[in-house]
Amino acid sequence: MKFRNFKMVDYVVYGSGCFDQLGEILAPRRVGDAPMIFFVDEYFQDKQAFLSRIPLQGKDKIVVIDVTDEPKTKTVDKIRDELQAEFGTVSGIIGIGGGSVMDMAKAVSLMMTNPGSSADYQGWDLVKFAGVYKVGIPTISGTGAEVSRTCVLTGPTRKLGMNSDFTPFDQIVLDPSLTSTVEANQRFYTAMDCFIHCVESLQGTYLNAFSKSYGEKAQELCEEIFLRKTTWDADADEKLMMASYAGGMSIAYSQVGVAHAVSYGLAYLLGTKHGIGNCIVFDKLEEFYPEGVVKFKEMVKKHNIEIPQGITRGLTDEQFDTMINVSLGMAPLWENALGKDWKEIMTRERLRKLYERL
Ligand code: NAD
Ligand code: ZN
């Protein structure tokens, strides 16, 4: 048995309003006059009160990140090329936003020092050099991207992260007050990414006491917030931020499962976003995760959330095959979910039937 020795985030600051400490956190990380580059989710581009709190100095720059689509390798490469052309080198990249912006920040940080295209590094442990200093600041909770060792990118041939020990942030700033403006449906979809991480980790064959302790806590927090609380408040934002962190820590030492494996196929073919895609799939997974799906449906009902139906209707055989290929390519996810004999359990025919129900 070989145990994984995993790299974690170096520094964590937590608390409502802690964003205002960013200037002093960055100060010792500034290298000469090389700027800090702030990647900001497009939601904030016209929020002057928030933008004025970003501790800009000298040549520092704000780059607004378009989150219409999930991060693409070609966008990562383009932003890297532009930053290198304008500044040569930078002191650091700070990603302020959801999983999309945090992943973009991780990827561009790595590509500032690794040659070629980010598409060359989609996979496991392909990144050769540490990137520039990078900070993650979530403004919506659930993905666990703030703690993970990957940044998920859609490339020319696949959707796959740059998984490496160089990928985790050097610093994260967990300020739950930044999440208070997220719209209710979006908040639910991204939060359910966390809930699903917990179910898939806790029901998986890779489970161990490390993952279990984080996964149980995160799942309990999700249930408290979405099943027992009657109104959304600052306390809910705080708990959801910690659920996201703990859910991420849980899968760091285990793996996700069926919902993620199937939703990757949807994302690749149809561009379905991670949070909502996981919800669309998880809604139909009662045979794999009976208790989790019952709780999920209760939460959907209580919060009046619409889960899209019929999204694969009318697809061609070829399109179903593409999704099936992408999905079955995620071997560790299937092995975690179904065990070593997963290929006999999840046949192409069975997966096709599952896709047809979505
Ligand atoms: P997102 O980053 O795409 O953001 C969703 C929406 O919320 C956007 O419209 C954004 O503008 C808005 N938003 C963000 N903060 C807001 C705020 N404070 N107020 C109002 N609106 C706000 O969504 P997400 O679910 O956080 O992230 C999904 C992405 O994360 C996908 O690209 C997925 O691949 C990636 N992901 C990465 C990991 C990882 O470990 N690296 C894990 C899971 C998912
Ligand atoms: Zn996820």
From TrEMBL:
Its EC number is 1.1.1.1. It comes from the Bacteria. Keywords: Oxidoreductase. Gene3D superfamilies: 3.40.50.1970, Dehydroquinate synthase-like - alpha domain. GO terms for molecular function: alcohol dehydrogenase (NAD+) activity. InterPro entries: ADH_Fe/GldA, ADH_Fe_C, Alcohol_dehydrogenase_Fe. The keyword Iron-sulfur does not apply. Residues 189-291 form the Fe-containing alcohol dehydrogenase-like C-terminal domain. Pfam families: ADH_Fe_C, Fe-ADH. The keyword Oxidoreductase applies. It is an enzyme of class 1 (oxidoreductase). Transmembrane segments: none annotated. Residues 12-176 form the Alcohol dehydrogenase iron-type/glycerol dehydrogenase GldA domain. This is Iron-containing alcohol dehydrogenase.
